[in-house]
Amino acid sequence: MIKTFNPDYEQDIRQKLEHQEYMKLVGFTVTKIAVGRIEGELNLTQRHRQHTGFAHGGLIATLADIVAGFAAVSLVPKGLQVVTAELKVSYFHPGVGDKLLARGYVLKPGRRLNFCEAEVFEVREGVAPLLIAKASATMATITPEDRKRMVYNQ
Question: Is 0.85 topped by the overall pTM?
Answer without folding.
Answer: yes
